[in-house]
Design a protein that fits this description.
The complex is a heterotrimer. Helices cover 20% and strands 21% of the residues of chain A. Chain A is rod-shaped, with a radius of gyration of 44 Å. The longest helix of chain B is centred in the first third of the chain and has 15 residues. The radius of gyration of chain B is 19 Å and the shape is globular. By secondary structure, chain B is α/β, with parallel strands linked by helices. In chain B, α1 runs parallel beside α7. In chain B, the strands form three sheets. A seven-stranded mixed sheet of chain B has the order 3-2-4-5-7-6-12, sandwiched between helices. Chain B has a five-stranded mixed sheet with strand order 9-11-10-13-14, with helices on both faces. Chain C is of the alpha/beta class. In chain C, the strands form two sheets. A five-stranded parallel sheet of chain C has the order 1-2-3-7-6, with helices on both faces. In chain C, β4 and β5 form a beta hairpin. The chains are: A alpha+beta, B alpha/beta, C alpha/beta. At the B-C interface, α3, α4 and α5 of B face α6, α7 and α13 of C.
């Protein structure tokens, strides 16, 4: 039975891509032995004989003498008669240069590869890199068809808990460490999150340690952070017990809400304030009709076009003017240094109820702003806070605060100081109230101001005088000329 | 019974133990016999063990390493001394093409239990080519193992373990620390040679160092502690293979990592470590892995050396940067 | 320019009559002329039996047959390359047969003739050139180191090994093979310095086959290579590398001297590389056909055949039997090469270290998983 083998033109000199068949040394029908020269091929300078890889009968010479042939092209067919004396039994022709490789001085030479992806088996997992699965989780076995991850998310107090680690072994400069090493810090592993998510959480004020991670291995995702933010999506005045549905264990007669996020922060701030500074509150009820009329006139002015001119603007301006006369109210108590720090600039904080809860952004150096500038700053501050986009810088560094309880319809209150400050002014709703005006009882626009202050710094006299000045300015805005 | 020894003396004792333990151990190098070595690391050894076992060689690093290969093939355990780091390069051919590959290419029939001792690093106010940090060239070569000791105890045990290793070990000795003292207990049980070690516990930033920079890192940690920061310092000890599991455990707690070495930053070991720590601890990182190293310049003249080398301030600056992210 | 021009201004450092490059007789140890005549040399003699002579002939023929088959197989794509020893059979067989069982040989990458004398299976050499491994034989068991591709590096290994033999008090020596080009490598010179300083029992066997790829010997040295040895402080001798008897005698003497503690010898076996450097080299670019023709007249096998015939030490039947054995050997090599099992990928990771590392194990596992993820090709 015929067993036809083909011999392909090999490269016989460094880097040849083609060769000319000079002479055939055999003819069709000839019997050839292994290594018997088949033809002469021209290289750069000399003719090279090509030895036959097969023993058998020549059945076909594929090119005429004098033809230039590409390396790798079959040039002769030999019937080895099935005896396999020459080539490997039952296989395709010997590779020779059939792989398309051009031999070089030191080896087979380069192979051109296909520019396609090799087909993969179905249901094969991608090669898993060394993933970070937290301190307790198992790394999946490499050859499993599905990752078998034991998820043990570790959540503690994050940085704070880490700092409370146990004693460290210290190696002195010139002393050798004993072969047994120093004890590593023994704080727990930190929560897992990709760096962008970590930053996002920090920017929006979410403590990662308070978030359940739903990513693989307990990794906190951006969505997880957003879920925590959405939790506190209601105004501050609402009762915390009510409609929360996420992550509450539903008992028959009570609802439990985990303390986290902004609520946790606010609670901590209030505690810090209330139990550090001795609070005193003084009240002043003021007829602010003249200010309201002034407001109407100013709203029409071009300087204040397109800007909200509300009562808050005038209260803020009054406070800023009064602070000039009583700078001590713009200060803070430094317990560690045993000093009262009087600030030269007023960073005016405005308490804002936002979807996330209570935040107190402040306007830096509010005292240097003109009325239109102050109006604009207040408008920006409010809009930004409502959108939940207050930058962290604006949330720190405040020196005195106004809280507007009037928007909710209440008259007054006893506000708690923003930690680090020594005075806070609350003003209530402006109501039409019977008032003695020019000897008659007539309806007037009346509001109540309440000033809480830190009695370590501000005595009753100072607090009262300050509040009286604020009231005076709101009662008769013209007196601003005297400040 | 604990002694206080200089790092150089600890090496000397360790080599003596190695020569005593195995008759096949042969030390070879320039000036190591009669002179006892330019740093006296081999002081007294030729006197006690003879010229066949402590060999003063002709001047040629390739000759030292090439004949070591032949001796290893014959069943000996050569310990080659390269007099200074900057002079290892004539031997680089034998180290990379032969020492590193013979075990693999012979399918294990030709083991290469060769130790190549190299005093490395700067800080001794030296003239050119005596202050190099060539470890990356060797760590990048498959078939070699590379370690860097930092303390006398490390040196005493490490050299014995390296000599006992069936694989070739590039054994880096921090020459600026040769005269510094530390406790060595010859009766103790040493930890493994190819393991890193936490040398100071901390919580805020993980600082990695090896060889001469370990002391620098510890000094930085001490100052940091006074500033209210807690640094965990890890002595890497083995550069190939790297033992990073303790580092990963540390970074998972601190979230921050700084690598310190004298070698130039670009393509130094810090780059490899940064890649691995980032890949493995990605979800724990508060900051990118930072590297403190030499500048990408030839090692400077002695008068400028201190401006070139990483020091306590540069380490702490990197720590600050890390904490600032 | 078809051929590198000779720098004819250079004073021919190898003076001699006859064909180019053939030195005068006193400078060249010869015991068997190219015509097959036994001649005497004042310093070297050889007692050899008829049986041994016939055995040498058989060695030469079979080695050449193997080399011929390997070249053909490369042309057929079965090997990546082949470094032919054509023309150097006598230098290699003569040197190899001088080795005692306890000696150790350090070849370059062309000493297939020496491998033959050490009992290395030719297929273990073929596997290296096929790209299956880096040499399949056991260097310790055969007394024949693996091939070294970095030029000259093995001369230091041979010297170090000899220093080990000294420490063992062994009655043994090493034979360091190198080419003419290698004598320019710094490490080769360091090997000779070390060998001289320690009187190490190493013999440097340099086959000066006149070319280092395309660089002629004049490019490597201004003095005859055997004279370099005196610069290092030990004897050098030049032998007719195509004379198997002279090579055997000189190498035996040098190895004996080394074993006795006399230190190294440098043997320059003056021969010619009849083939190309490796199979993809084109020697026509740098040497003239006339040179080959002249060296063909000095063929190592022809002279021994002539001697055996003329002296009646071998007859037609003997020569035919050797040729037949050659065909059989060639067939075995051909089949064995073609049927050589392909290596398994994980071999890359085996033996990198005596004690593996966790990272390497991890990479190995990753490698296995990666390749398992593809459909069968």
């Amino acid at each position: 039975m015929a067993d036809l083998r083909q011999f392909r033109l090999p490269d016989v000199g460094e880097g040849l891509t083609e060769g000319e068949i000079l002479t055939w040394l055999v003819a069709v029908g000839d019997t050839v032995a292994v290594n018997q020269p088949l033809c002469e091929v021209e290289t750069a300078k000399a003719a090279v004989e090509l030895p036959s890889p097969y023993a058998g009968t020549v059945t076909d010479l594929l090119f005429d003498a004098g033809t230039t042939v590409d390396v790798g092209a079959p040039i002769i067919t030999i019937d080895t008669g099935g005896e396999g004396a020459g080539g490997p039994a039952g296989e395709a022709p010997a590779p020779s240069s059939a792989g398309g490789r051009t031999a070089v001085l030191v080896g087979y030479g380069p192979r051109t590869t296909e520019a396609t992806r090799r087909p993969r088996r179905s249901a094969a997992p991608p090669v898993l890199p060394e993933a970070d699965y937290g301190s307790g989780a198992e790394r999946p076995p490499l050859l499993a068809t599905a990752p078998d991850v034991t998820v043990k998310p570790v959540r503690h107090g994050g940085l704070e808990a880490g700092r409370a680690a146990e004693a460290h072994a210290t190696v002195a400069d010139t002393e050798a460490a004993a072969p047994t090493s120093a004890v590593p810090g023994s704080g727990p592993s930190r929560p897992l999150a990709k760096p962008p998510v970590r930053k996002y959480a920090r920017d929006v004020g979410v403590d990662l340690a308070t978030v359940t991670g739903t990513g693989e291995g307990g990794v906190v995702t951006r969505a997880d952070v957003d879920a925590v933010r959405a939790l506190s999506d209601r105004p501050m005045a609402d009762s915390p017990v009510g409609t929360a549905t996420v992550r509450t264990e539903v008992a028959l007669d009570e609802t439990r809400i985990p303390v986290k996020g902004v609520r946790k922060h606010t609670a901590a701030a209030m505690v810090a304030s209330a139990f550090t500074a001795p609070h005193v509150t003084v009240f002043h009820t003021v007829d602010v009709t003249r200010t309201m009329k002034l407001r109407q006139r100013l709203m029409a002015r071009p300087e204040l076009a397109g800007v909200k001119v509300g009562p808050l603007l005038f209260v803020a301006k009054a406070l800023l003017l009064a602070t000039k006369r009583h700078p001590m109210v713009n200060s803070s108590w430094d317990e560690a240094a045993q000093e009262i720090v009087v600030k030269s600039r007023v960073n005016l904080g405005i308490a804002a109820a936002t979807p996330r809860g209570l935040v107190v952004p402040n306007i830096k150096d509010a005292g240097s702003l003109t009325l239109p500038e102050l109006a604009g700053a207040l408008a920006d501050l409010t809009a930004t806070a409502r959108a939940g986009r207050t930058p962290p810088a604006d949330l720190s560094g405040g020196s005195i605060t106004i809280t507007n309880v009037g928007v909710f319809g209440v008259d007054t209150g006893t506000p708690l100081l923003n930690p680090g400050e020594s005075a806070i002014l609350a003003f209530g709703a402006i109501r039409e109230t019977p008032w003695v005006h020019k000897g008659q009882v007539v309806p007037r626009q009346v509001t109540t101001l309440a000033l809480s202050f830190d009695h370590r710094i501000i005595d009753g006299e100072l607090g009262s005088r300050f509040l009286a000045d604020v009231g005076a300015l709101l009662h008769d805005p013209g007196t601003a000329l005297t400040f | 019974m604990t002694d206080t020894l200089t790092l150089g003396k600890a090496l000397n004792l360790g080599l003596r133990r190695a020569l005593e333990d195995d008759a096949k151990v042969v030390l070879m190098g320039e000036d190591i016999g009669r002179l006892g070595g330019v740093f006296r690391i081999t002081d007294g050894l030729q006197q006690d063990f003879g010229e066949q076992r402590v060999v003063d060689t002709p001047l040629g690093e390739a000759g030292i390493l090439g004949t070591a290969v032949g001796l290893a093939m014959r069943g000996y355990r050569p310990v080659c001394e390269i007099q200074f780091d900057g002079f290892v390069f004539p031997a680089y051919n034998q180290i990379v093409t032969q020492v590193a590959k013979l075990h693999a290419r012979s399918r294990g029939r030709l083991p290469m239990p060769i130790v190549i001792r190299i005093p490395f690093g700067g800080g001794i106010g030296a003239v050119e080519h005596h202050s190099e940090s060539p470890e990356a060239y060797f760590a990048h070569t498959a078939g070699l193992k590379v370690v860097a000791v930092s303390t006398p105890a490390d040196a005493y045990w490490g050299i014995q373990q390296a000599v006992a290793s069936p694989d070739p070990v590039v054994f880096l000795e921090p020459k600026r620390r040769y005269w510094e003292k530390g406790a060595v207990d010859p009766g103790a049980t040493p930890g493994p040679l190819f393991g890193s070690r936490v040398v100071r516990g901390g919580d805020d930033v993980t600082v990695l160092a090896y060889g001469p920079m370990v002391k620098t890192a510890l000094q930085a940690a001490e100052v940091a502690a006074q500033e209210g920061r807690s640094l965990e310092v890890v002595d890497l000890r083995t550069l190939s293979p790297l033992d990073l599991e303790p580092v990963y455990a540390s970074v998972r707690r601190t979230g921050r990592c700084v690598v310190v070495h004298e070698a130039p930053v670009t393509l130094g070991l810090g780059a490899e470590i940064a890649a691995r720590v980032t890949e493995t601890c990605f979800h724990s990182l508060e900051a990118p892995v930072l590297r403190v190293g030499g500048y990408d310049t030839p090692y400077p003249p002695a008068k400028l050396e201190e401006e070139y080398l990483p020091d306590l301030d540069r380490v702490l600056d990197a720590v600050d940067r890390s904490l600032g992210f | 320019m078809s051929v590198l021009s000779r720098t004819t201004e250079l004073v021919d450092p190898v003076p001699g009559d006859g064909a180019p490059h053939l030195p005068a007789q006193p400078d060249l140890v010869q015991l068997l002329t190219p015509e097959g005549e036994r001649v005497e040399h004042p310093d070297y003699s050889l007692e050899i039996s008829a049986e041994e002579l016939r055995a040498l002939y058989r060695d030469l023929v079979l080695v050449r047959r193997w080399d011929h088959e390997a070249t053909a197989l490369q042309r057929q794509g079965e090997l990546g390359l082949w470094a032919s020893l054509l023309g150097q059979e006598a230098a290699q067989v003569g040197a190899g047969r001088a080795l005692a069982a306890q000696d150790m040989a350090f070849p370059t990458y062309r000493e297939h003739g020496v491998a033959w004398t050490r009992g290395v299976d030719p297929l273990h050499v073929m596997s290296m050139f096929r790209g299956v491994d880096q040499g399949g034989w056991d260097p310790v068991a055969t007394g024949f180191n693996l091939y070294t591709v970095v030029i000259g590096a093995q001369t230091l290994h041979a010297t170090g090994y000899a220093m080990g033999m000294q420490r063992d008090g062994a009655d043994a020596a090493t034979l360091a093979f190198l080419g003419d080009g290698a004598t320019s490598q710094g490490e080769v010179n360091e090997a000779m310095i070390w060998a001289a300083t320690y009187a190490a029992p190493v013999v440097f066997f340099c086959q000066n086959n006149q070319y280092a790829i395309s660089a002629p010997i004049e490019r490597q040295s201004r003095v005859p290579l055997y004279q370099r040895a005196s610069g290092f402080g030990f004897p050098g001798v030049r032998v007719d590398g195509n004379d198997v008897l002279a090579v055997l005698a000189v190498t035996r003497a040098a190895l004996a001297a080394a074993r006795e503690g006399a230190g190294p010898t440098f043997i320059e076996a003056f021969t010619y590389r009849m083939g190309a450097h490796t199979t993809s080299d084109d020697p026509t670019r740098y040497r003239l056909a006339g040179e080959l023709a002249e060296w063909e007249l000095r063929d190592p096998i022809a002279r021994l055949k002539a001697h055996l015939s003329r002296t009646g030490l071998a007859d037609r039947d003997f020569f035919d039997a050797v040729d037949a054995e050659g065909d059989e050997l060639a067939g075995r090599i051909r089949t064995g090469t073609r049927e050589m099992p392909e290596p398994t990928g994980t071999e890359i990771f085996d033996h990198v270290y005596a004690e593996t590392t966790p990272e390497l194990d991890r990479q190995r596992a990753e490698f296995v998983e990666y390749h398992a993820s593809f459909e069968e090709a």
